[in-house]
Amino acid sequence: MTLQWVAVATFLYAEIGLILIFCLPFIPPQRWHKIFSFHVWGKIASFWNKAFLTIIILLIVLFLDAVREVRKYSANTIEKSSTGRPSAYEHTQMKLFRSQRNLYISGFSLFFWLVLRRLISLITQLAKELSNKGAIKTQTENTNKAAKIFMEENEKLKKLLKTQTKGEHHILETENKKLLEDQEKLKVELKKTSDALSKAQNDVMTMKMQSETLSKEYDRLLKEHSELQDRVARDSKKDL
């Protein structure tokens, strides 16, 4: 096995180990979220996407190369099997087996690399959802406690109001009756006052009309008086 395939196989074993560690049931997602929240990961976060894409490209290249090798040695196996040379056929079969091994190693490495990235993102998302769920649960419990306290206080206030209103109910009824009687009296007095006011207004209008008539009559009499004085003055002058 060449150096590159040894590195790919080691990378595959490391991926399988990490996936098994992430799948351990006794490590909660919150613990992984705390681990992923370390400052070290924040510093290398800018290089993580570049490294991820670089590794994917390398694995794809190695996978395609392995596919090419498998196709080449598969064709050579068919040709050599027809020639009837056992040693060459066995050598070709060995190379075919190695190319198929490299194909599986690169293919599973690529697959597990994608699975590993998706698993980390899901664990992080699950940890956030669980923390939010815990916060919402605590808030709900506090709200329920506050609601129970308010309901108890409301019941106490209702009972207190009932005990207080039993003694005051009769007083309120008598005061209400008295107010109704006063209201009726005020209505009657208001009606009398309105009638008197309308009568006074009518009298004022009548007196105003009479005053206008008297002033006209006075003006007429004053005019006649002045005419009579003028006539008397003229007659006296004629007698002289």
Q: Can you describe this structure?
A:
This protein is mainly α and 240 residues long. It is 95% helix and 0% strand. The protein has four helices and no strands. Helix 1 packs across helix 4, helix 2 (29-36) packs across helix 4 (86-239) and helix 3 crosses helix 4.
Largest sheet: none
How far is the N terminus from the C terminus? 175 Å
Structural class: mainly alpha
Helix and strand pattern = HHHH
Give the mean pLDDT. Answer: 77
- Fraction of helical residues: over 70%
Q: Tell the overall outline.
A: elongated
Low-confidence stretches: none
Count of DSSP E strands?
Answer: 0
**What percent strand?**
under 5%
Rg, please? 58 Å
Keywords, please?
240 residues; 0% strand; mainly alpha
